[in-house]
Amino acid sequence: MTAPKNRKEAYKQARERDRLLRDKARDGMMRGEDRYLPARDRGPVRKLARDFVDARRLPGQYFLPAVLIIMLLSMVPFPLEIRRVVLTVYTMSLPVVLVLVVGSSFYVAGKVKKLASERFPDENLKGVGFYAAMRSSQIRRLRFPKPTVLPGGGQVPETSPKK
Fold first, then answer.
1. What distance separates the 2 farthest-apart alpha carbons in the chain?
2. Is 155 helix (H, G, I), strand (E, B) or coil?
3. Confidence band (pLDDT; 50, 70, 90) for 161?
4. Which of 10, 63, 110, 141 is the most exposed place for a label (fewest CB within 10 A)?
């Protein structure tokens, strides 16, 4: 790195250095490296919670897409008889799915807390159940940090970085 000749050159070098640091931190966050993650996602307990949730297919991850499809179907101008059936299915299924998702969230939170207390007895477990329940209600592709475990427990294959 060369010394800047003037203030404009110094700002340019500083911007470039900051951009490189941001890119490195972003890549580290996307890979799930602990030191680059936000405080809420750091630590072995949170990693355990992420892996527990990501290794399973849970009702919460399908809730938002299902609701979107049902809402779109309710707006399609079907004949009156079919429209009544669609609206009946919508009004009957939404509370059932909601109860299923909430029940699943409580189940996941309890299992993660129990598993974490067994594996990490000296770690702080505050909020880990809620963390796992919230992650279980997100669409898998939109989760951050990205899942490192496939449904069923296999490891996600490494991909080459995009250039």
1. 78
2. strand
3. low
4. 141
Please give the C-alpha separations between residue 129 and each of 29, 46, 98, 116, 140, in angstroms, as whole numbers: 22, 10, 19, 9, 18
Write the CB contacts of 162 (distance below 8 Å, at least 6 apart in sequence): none
pLDDT band for 163, please (50, 70, 90 cuts). very low
- Classify burial at 6, counting beta carbons within 10 Å of its beta carbon; exposed 0-12, middle 13-18, buried 19 or more: exposed
Nearest C-alpha neighbor of 50 from the set 66, 38, 62, 64? 38
**Angle CA(49)–CA(142)–CA(67) in degrees, nearest 5?**
105
- pLDDT tens by residue, 5-42: 889 999 999 999 999 999 999 988 888 888 999 889 99
- For residue 65, give every residue at least 6 positions away whose Cβ sits within 8 Å of its Cβ, in sequence order, or none: 139
Query: Tens digit of pLDDT for each residue in 83-103?
Result: 888 788 888 888 888 899 999
- Phi and psi at residue 149, to the nearest 5°: -125, 135
Other CB atoms closer than 10 Å to residue 32's CB: what's the count?
A: 16
